Amino acid sequence: MTQTGKPETRFSPYAGLPLPQPSWDNYKFWEYCKAHELRLQKCSGCGELRYYPRPACPECHSMEFEWTKVSGKGTVYSYTIAHHPVLPFFADKVPLPVGVIKLDEGEVYMVGRLMDVDPGDVKIGMPVQVMFEDVAEDITLPQWRRADD
Amino acid sequence: MTKLWWQDRAAITGIGQTEYSRGLDRSEWDMAAEAIFKAIDDAGLKPEEIDGLSTYNLQHEGFNNYMHQLLGLGNMSYYVSQPHGGGGYASTLAHGALGVASGHCNHLVAFRARARGRKSIFGPGMNEGGRPWEKVEPRLPTGWQYHVPFGLQSPVQEAATITRRYMHDYGWTEDHLGNVAVALRTHGSRNPNAVMRAPMTLEDHNSSRMISDPLRLLDCCIETDGACAVVVSTMDYAKSAPHPPAVFHAFTQSNQPAHYQLTEWWHSKRWNREVTGANLGKRLFAQSDFKHDDISALMVYDHFTSFAILSIEDLGFCGRGEGGAFTEGGALIAPDGRLPLNTHGGQHSEAFIHGFNNVIEAVRQIRGVSTSQVPDARAVVVIEALTDPCGAFILRSN
Hints:
The complex is a heterodimer of chains A (149) and B (398).
Chain A: E1 19-20, H1 27-34, E2 39-43, E3 49-50, E4 65-69, E5 73-82, E6 96-103, E7 109-115, E8 127-134, E9 140-146
Parallel strand pairs in A: 7-9
Antiparallel strand pairs in A: 2-3, 2-4, 5-6, 5-8, 6-7, 8-9
Chain B: E1 10-17, H1 28-42, E2 52-56, H2 67-70, E3 78-82, H3 89-101, E4 107-115, E5 139-140, H4 155-170, H5 174-189, H6 202-206, E6 210-213, E7 215-216, E8 225-234, H7 235-238, E9 246-254, H8 262-265, H9 273-287, E10 297-299, H10 305-314, H11 323-326, H12 346-349, H13 356-367, E11 379-383, E12 390-397
Parallel strand pairs in B: 2-3, 2-4, 10-11
Antiparallel strand pairs in B: 1-8, 1-9, 4-8, 6-7, 9-12, 11-12
Helix pairs in contact in B: 5-10
């Protein structure tokens, strides 16, 4: 695992955005994101996909798994439009649509920004496709764009 | 009914609190000390007689676990600690009461102090005053890394996504959320301890500033400074204590996903919260001598209005999805409403003490001294945040 932890440079457009600190449990997830691949843990015991990363399957309790590439297609299960920016980084990004995305593969939910979507157009059930936003040397965030345009 | 051996064997004998304010220029330690000494005095005891301590282990200045030494309390024979914030206040007290009921100690103190007002910031750390989420580190090692970089930076935004889906699935409306807000402010307006006392209408709610759609400013709790403490004693002592005892009658917990685990919240199998939530209510009332219609008042963790509605459903006061309609017609307003809710004004209007002021208000109802008193209050349900692993208990009169 690459040792990280440096704040992003103040000259980056992402300065001030708090970033994930990869750990022994999840660094592979973040490394695949860095390569613009959405890979999740797939349980070798029962085949269940899981996110966020964790050492054992909550369904069958197997500790064996593979990092499996998923389609990156999903729908908006729920969402909010943030009008109050809590952190300064988001001050010029409100109103900010953020979705809870349900992946087409099944019972996997991921939180991500809905990029390039008019806040007034966001609806539950809206199809979305993953996209990758490189925000730091070692971190890429999986975000979402409309898939029905 | 499944009666458990510890039921009705401990009672709250003392309550204490500080002034509540948006900024008191005091440390959490200082405020906790005042509330604890007041609660001990209210119970008719001396600090040296306290032999049990129950604490939160989340977000404090590092003093909590040593309060017995720092304040010169008695010879301790029982400690317990409970995680979570709003999901800790009922359980902090309940685990303490279990220690008293089981004979591990005679008089136990449980408390909470918060310095969340912006004026109270004294350092850059997350637990050095103010709102923790406004002071996050550049790198996030916890589950926050799956929310904060993506724009869900604080509980209101997480709660908004949960609220949105319930409104979609069950037809909860803006007015339903507003009914909760109005009930809380109505109670707050009668309470001289409350920080927010100006009357509020449904129109005020529905036109208030959008914070994180669909949650508006008046769907959100306030952020304040203050502390609360209670003393739990054996029933032998409680019967002769200066004030009528609030008897610890029933208690259970359940495995709800947390607000910072939206990946789990909606999963239809894993920790299915529709089931775990309803099971919490079923277990609580299975222990109870009281049925739903016997409950005088309900104290919920009202960080956001929608979770008051969800609490009403989970506890079984109505069916799943019926909580929105339940709020209509002044149902939540004392003294005449069907289920008076947070009769002190809750975390919306009285103060944000991570819910611990809800316990104090439940005791006041049992003692008959609330500023929104329900006549002949005999049993009060207290439930903590549904956005953490969650507990609930029932206090009864003796």
